[in-house]
Amino acid sequence: MNQSRPEDTPRTPLTLRNVRLPGTETLLDAQLAESRVVSLRPAAAGAPGSLAGDSLDAAGRFLIPGLWDHHVHFTQWVIQRQRLDLADTASAADVLQLVRGALASGQTASSGVVGYGFRDGLWPDLPTLRSLDEATGSVPVGLISGDLHCIWLNSALQRKLGVCTDSSGLLREGESFAVMDQLQDPAALTTQIYAQTAADAARRGVVGIVEFENADNIGQWPLRTAAGVDSLRVEVSVWPDSLQAAIAAGLKTGDVLDERGLVTMGPLKVISDGSLNTRTAWCWEPYPDVDLGHPHSCGMQTVPIEELQQVMRQARDAEIAAAIHAIGDRANSAVLDAFEALGMRGVIEHAQLLRWEDIPRFAHLGLTASVQPEHAMDDRDVADAFWAGRTERAFPLDALNRAGVPLRLGSDAPVAPLDPWVAMAAAVSRSRDGRRAWHPEQRLDPATALAAAVRGGTAGGAAGRGTAGAGHLVRPGDIADLVVVDSDPLGDPAGGRLREMGVAATLLGGRLTYDGIS
After folding, report:
1. Comparing C-alpha atoms, which of 285, 308, 307 is closest to residue 296?
2. Using an 8 Å Cβ cutoff, are 295 and 279 in contact?
3. Distance CA 204, CA 418 (A)
4. Cβ neighbours of residue 200 closer than 8 Å, sequence gap 6 or more
5. What pTM was computed for the model?
6. Would you say residue 294 has pLDDT above 80?
């Protein structure tokens, strides 16, 4: 374990020529050395050879800080590309038709079929074990929901794994997570596919992720960077069942875990409730009187508050931060209570459905809200159906920002794409696919959204008033985690063009991880 943070430095200095900062027209040369931005000066006249070291001509493109995805399940993102895509299905019948087609093609793995991406909240028909068995026969089949909070299993897979469902064939929350872990094929999770997935993220301007995979992140990620998965910085989380081992090893949040200086120890991750699409988000008021397929009319508290506080206290005393999943408004209230009782700072992951009176508590307690704006686009119709009359406080991004709450943007990949531009577009536009903006009063301005997509998110203060301070600007002395983009990210107040932002280059500590210019 490294207590200091060595930087992944380039061998020679690099000058990014003819760049502009967002909101400006002046051409600058950014000189990089020893992994940092040494200077930003008016663009030099004359030949590139007049500048020390290597140079890259950005031709008037815009220079911004490197982007982070603050909530990723990286292995799930890697393997979802290998799974049957269920994202465009609108009913149980649609899903079954795709599964039949996959089985008929003969291209399925001998071990069975794994699908990912269905969202059953608004299906006109209900999933049943009988219908899935009729479509699949003796082939083991497991179908994972798009929010990762439930799985639809046929009888063949249930027998294989030694689990049992009710007549729906569904498992939810903790029971489903245990099954999902068993559906990964280690032979398919090669270093090459991790490296390619990381490189794909770099092509979209990503320099770092916060890893929330329920796995041995502390042990696995240093091995990956040593093997060449080096396009990203990775802050790794630890889940409750691994917390004592991390404490025994003396690990603290911020410790460097690998020789490259790319992997650092992050927070304790705890899931306190479910999700809205699965109707397991823990809410103060019951969901509408419909057949939810489970007995929890207000959603589910997945860990007792006393147990949550106990594990958070252990992390606090060991100097490990906490990042607690809370989606429902009652879950958020309870998690805020836990942080307050412990006098502990940290992050609430999702902060999706909130009571108005709880929003100032985030700022008062010094908590950060890690939010996934694209989920608002995925969940808007489900929220209108199951949270009717309350949706003005669903994904209340502007309200959080104006209250002075630091924001971090993420994807929760594979739930949404590992692409910060998608998150920023959703935060600024509150729209997708040409639809009318959903609660446009909760939009973020582009500068605030961009600042929340760089490391650390917005910092409250000026950012809390919607200006984002200078969190979106590159300054001398910064670590040279940088992105060169084709157009000004502040030049589209409506946010409609952010989703397709062209990325020309990405640098990690001054080293090019993506070069679309040369």
Report:
1. 285
2. no
3. 9
4. 418
5. 0.93
6. no
- Helices 329-342, 305-317: crossing angle, 10 deg rounding: 40
Instruction: Please give the Cα distance from 388 to 400 (Å, whole number).
Output: 21
149 Cβ contact partners less than 8 Å away, ≥ 6 residues apart? 172, 173, 176, 274, 275, 277, 278, 280
pLDDT per residue as tens digits for the range 463-481: 333 334 467 899 999 999 9
Q: Find, among 51, 149, 215, the residue nearest to 350 by Cα.
A: 149
Of the chain, the percentage scoring pLDDT greater than 70 comes to: 91
User: Residue 244's closest CA among 141, 144, 317?
Assistant: 317
Angle of helix 305-317 relative to helix 240-248, nearest 10 degrees? Answer: 20
Tens of pLDDT, residue by residue over 181-191, are 888 878 789 99
**Dist CA 364 CA 353 (whole Å):** 19
| Two structure tokens written together for 52 | 């020390």
SS3 at position 233:
strand
Question: Tokens standing for 466?
Answer: 């919607």
| Sequence-ordered list of residues with C-beta below 8 angstroms from that of 228, at least 6 positions apart, any chain | 191, 195
- For the stretch 221-242, pLDDT in tens is 999 999 999 999 999 999 999 9
- Three-class HEC string of 408-448: EECCCECCCCCCHHHHHHHHHHCCCCCCCCCCHHHCCCHHH
pLDDT digits (tens, 9 = 90+) for 412-445: 999 999 999 999 999 999 999 999 999 999 999 9
| Triad 153, 156, 161: Cα angle to 5° | 75
